[in-house]
Amino acid sequence: MTYQETVDNLGDNAEQLENLYQTAVRAGKGDAFREAIDARRAAAPDNLLYAAWYYRLRATAARGRDAFIAWSWAIPLAALNGLLLWLLSDDERFGVIIAGAPTETYIYNYIPVVVLLAAPISAAFIMTYLAAAGRKRWGAAVLISLVLAAAGAYVLWAYPRLGTRPYQEQYLTLMAAHLPLLAWAGVGLFLGVRDATDRFAFLNKSLELFIMAGLFVIAGGIFTGVTVGLFDALGVTLSSAVMRLFVAGGAGLLPVIATAVIYNPRVSPAGQEFEEGLSRLVALLTRVLLPLTILVLLVYVAFIPFNFRQPFENREVLIIYNAMLFAVIALMVGATPVSAARLSPRAGRLLRWGIIVLAALAALVSVYALAAIVYRTAGDRLTPNRLTFIGWNVVNIGLLLLLLYRQARSGSSAANGGWVAGLHRAFATGAAAYTLWALVVILALPWLFGINQAQVESLPLTVQNIIYEQPDPILLKCNSSPHIYLLEDGEKRWIDTIETFEDRGYLWRDVRFVPCADLRAIPDGASIPEGAGRPPGE
């Protein structure tokens, strides 16, 4: 029985409804029946029969909430995940070393490998729990887990290709955010999000899961602080291994436990409960914050003309802008209802216009932030960080414009819930775009910004040091010569005039001095511009 068939077959007498309900439950379509009742109650709010069924189904869901938590699977899997993350958190044994240093004094552990692999590993345990507790899609769980493992292995294999220390550090830092995003998308794929409503429901439930995990982190932090304080009062200092067990091991418990508490593995994302408990609280809080956020953005936009150049000149301000934009989108996801049937017409109109105004203001600030990143890139150089955030800004702007377009298209259907479907489609498209861009960032950055390590190793040590510490362009000069060279593909290219130097956008601050003997040891390449000949005096 499909959802539409259930709606079409709903009758107006108690016996017929009871028979349809039992049939739906036996067919595993209890959620479809509940949504059909919701739709009928919204269309006929004075119908006592539909109201009675509405509250009956809510009470049944509340009583059965704990029944879908498979603790016999959740606790062992959470413990195994915690122990594995605790093991990998030993940065002396499992640290990610910045590669390609010309001397041993440059070599150091940048981050523990657990920072990169925690999300793919946790996603595999989450899918194992979901498969065991209800979904039974073992083949999909194994396949997606292998893909996520391959993504983590690829990052560890590919990051040395970037060669320069700043670019390796940027890439690894970016991966600490992008591998979790890919892992999250893998869990969504495992759950079989087939349409826009399912994808939006998964987004909404994910937001709730993150909040639940945050609450667990607060509780765990208090417990750890109290425990450390008690032992400290006794003069006992806990070893680093024990502290890692509290921090990394405790963090490993959270993904599986939070998923078990929040998500019912026996039903689809759209069939989850969104009207009770934490779901209701998240929706209430985000809708309360909606007008406050609009007010803040209005004040901020009004002040932009008086502080216009701040993000163009201050990197920290630009970072704050981008963090704010992601927070605004998360706020809109939390405020958007899964079903319009659960809103009164007046509340629906106010909520719809609040989201539209917020999206318009966020789009304006997104364009402003994108302009600042492009300006800073044009005045300096393209880096992994800048390319990544240019892409994220483009995705955010596209999502916000698509959302506004969908709302404009909803037109007269806004009154009967068409606006909610438009929001679902916009956010579902945005989720796919986020995942695609994350995949591009993971796979492409080492090749777009990579260097030929064998070529670098053939150069003098002083030049290797410069390459390791400074990304392209590498501009070289020695004290006894007025000439400046661009290092490119293992060769030095003479820049014929100051005008040529400045026309190509090079900066005097990037010129590095090396011993003249080392400069002469670098093979000569074509001059800039080609055909200018050899430098005078050589």
The number of helical elements comes to 20
Radius of gyration: 29 Å
Mean pLDDT: 84
Task: Give the neighbour order of strands across the main sheet.
Answer: 5-4-3-6
Biggest sheet statistics: 4 strands, mixed
Taken as a percent bin, the fraction of beta residues is under 5%
Low-confidence stretches: 62-66
Helix-strand string: HHHHHEEHHHHHHHHHHHHHEEEHEH
- Give the end-to-end Cα distance, rounded to a whole number of Å: 86 Å
- Tell how many strands the DSSP assignment holds: 6
Shape, please? Answer: globular
- Helix/strand class: mainly alpha
How much helical structure, as a percent, in the residues?
55-70%
Question: What do you see in this structure?
Answer:
The protein has 538 residues and is mainly alpha-helical. It has helices spanning 3-9, 14-26, 30-43, 48-63, 71-88, 113-135, 138-158, 165-191, 196-233, 240-262, 277-303, 310-313, 315-335, 345-379, 384-410, 418-448, 453-457, 461-469, 498-503, 516-521, and strands at residues 95-97, 109-112, 474-477, 485-488, 491-494, 511-513. The strands form two sheets. The protein has a four-stranded mixed β-sheet, with no helix packed on it. α3 (30-43) packs antiparallel against α4 (48-63). Residues 62-66 have low confidence and may be disordered.
Give a short overview:
The protein is mainly alpha-helical.
Features:
538 residues, globular, single chain
What's the structural blueprint in terms of helices and strands?
Layout: H1 3-9, H2 14-26, H3 30-43, H4 48-63, H5 71-88, E1 95-97, E2 109-112, H6 113-135, H7 138-158, H8 165-191, H9 196-233, H10 240-262, H11 277-303, H12 310-313, H13 315-335, H14 345-379, H15 384-410, H16 418-448, H17 453-457, H18 461-469, E3 474-477, E4 485-488, E5 491-494, H19 498-503, E6 511-513, H20 516-521
Parallel strand pairs: 3-6
Antiparallel strand pairs: 1-2, 3-4, 4-5
